[in-house]
Specification:
By secondary structure, this protein is of the alpha+beta class. It has 13 helices and 16 strands. Helix 1 packs parallel to helix 4.
Length: 350
């Protein structure tokens, strides 16, 4: 039976054929295959190397996803278990592959896009999860001062979530905190995974798994977010949007009635779409260059929509650091002077 790295190498040798089959909405541009995303939408964000030392490697500039062609098969097909990914790759490799040059000479049109929407792939993984309460993920968040995370339906737990090392190809599984990414209508478009492990030096401590990328996203994140406390119906005149999951959860801990959204990365924060009826949007800052980029992008977009952007600044690197290292009282005091008086009176916990 072929190993993961062997399958990835075999797919790379047929890189253009793989792209034409799984990313048929794209096109070849020089030494790259260009397409919108792993959901096979049209666009230019995702590119696959078709030659050279990086042949078969791909990256999506909009979502920061990357990997080899075995990862691409997994993402485009919405597969979770490695056995299913390997079976799909072997099935493809057994089929005769057309000559790309011949296809171009015949002016053949690519096959129509395979109908595997990103939301279906994400929803499949989310359905495999269990409630957060009294799980390893719940304990992980409690260690970070977030005590009521189990009240949020957007957060779930997977006891053994598939993980593949993008460098070695080795596959394994870890328990994971799973967060549902939704659009403004509440439809799941993606999921975010935080892989967890117990720290070896302290059996009572839980941290992120000791892997290169303990946080990974699946599905459609652009313009969407992990949402907390959003009403099922009715307007959202005031809300908070930020980057990191733990940072937003820390704010939710002290402002339990405020609708909040975690866009997960600075690029996605810049692209977040607030509700149409929003009047004031607080942007939770992260103290780094990427965070500033997200704040500036979202501020420009909200101003163009007639929404007032107001920046909330932590005293340390982010609001979870403030909660853990400075304590609840100092976090509340820092927020009180930054919120509009009417929001401070109503939203901050006593």
């Amino acid at each position: 039976m072929s190993s993961a790295s062997e399958l990835a190498d075999r797919l790379a040798r047929n890189a253009e054929a793989v792209c034409r089959h799984y990313l048929s909405a794209g096109r070849r541009a020089g030494n790259y295959w260009i397409v919108g995303d792993v959901a096979n939408n049209k666009g230019k964000s995702l590119y696959v190397h078709l030659s050279g030392s990086r042949k078969g490697r791909w990256a999506d500039a909009a979502t920061a996803q990357f990997g080899d062609l075995l990862d691409l098969v997994r993402e485009t097909c919405g597969l979770v278990d490695f056995r299913d990914v390997a079976d799909e790759a072997r099935r493809f490799l057994k089929e005769p592959q057309p000559d790309p040059a011949s296809s171009l000479r015949d002016d053949a049109r690519p096959d129509p896009p395979v109908d595997r929407p990103a939301n279906e792939r994400a929803q499949r993984l989310f359905r495999m999860t269990q409630p957060l309460v009294r799980t390893l993920a719940d304990s992980y968040l409690r260690q970070r001062g977030i005590l009521q995370a189990a009240l949020h339906p957007a957060l779930r737990f997977h006891p053994s979530c598939y993980y593949r090392d993008l460098v070695t190809g080795r596959t394994s599984s870890f328990p994971a905190l799973i967060a549902a990414v939704t659009d403004r209508f509440g439809t799941i478009t993606g999921v975010h995974r935080t892989y967890l492990d117990r720290c070896e030096l302290d059996s009572g401590s839980i941290g992120k798994a000791q892997v290169d990328t303990p946080r990974r996203a699946l599905g459609g994140l652009l313009g969407n977010a992990v949402r907390f406390r959003f009403p099922v119906r009715g307007p959202v005149p005031v809300m908070i949007a930020g980057e990191g999951l733990e940072s937003i959860l820390s704010l939710s801990h002290v402002m339990p009635t405020m609708p909040m959204a975690s866009a997960l990365t600075a690029n996605h924060l810049a692209a977040f779409r607030p509700p149409d009826e929003c009047e004031r949007l607080y942007i939770a800052a992260d103290a780094d260059a990427a965070g500033r980029h997200g704040i500036e992008g979202l501020s420009r977009r909200t101003q163009a929509l007639g929404i007032l952007p107001l920046v909330l600044t932590p005293q340390l690197g982010d609001f979870n650091e403030d909660l853990r290292q400075l304590g609840l009282d100092r976090l509340v005091a820092n927020l009180r002077v930054q919120l509009a008086p009417e929001d401070a009176r109503v939203l901050l916990s006593a």
